[in-house]
Amino acid sequence: MNNLKPCSHTKRWLPLLVKGRLHGIVLWYLRMHVKRCNNCTEAIEALRAAEECIAAAQQASRNGPGELSSDRMATLEDLFREGQPNDAQ
Ligand SMILES: [Zn+2]
Known about the structure:
Number of helices: 4
Radius of gyration: 21 Å
Shape: elongated
Structural class: mainly alpha
Bound molecules: zinc ion
Low-confidence stretches: none
Number of strands: 0
């Protein structure tokens, strides 16, 4: 990953901007700043990617094992029957 270096005066606000929790003049200021600042733009993109990963992980954990495809379920059942889980890592 690149070395992300958002500006010191915007750093604490960027996560809130990504989460849509800013309003009014702070929101306006940050949007204006990010448009012109490559460092903050990169930081925002990284934060958005991280948010998407977290959301996907939360979704997967909500769905639980019911989300496994039938192929994977069959493989798991085979492994349980054999009593020898695949050790390959
Ligand atoms: Zn900046």
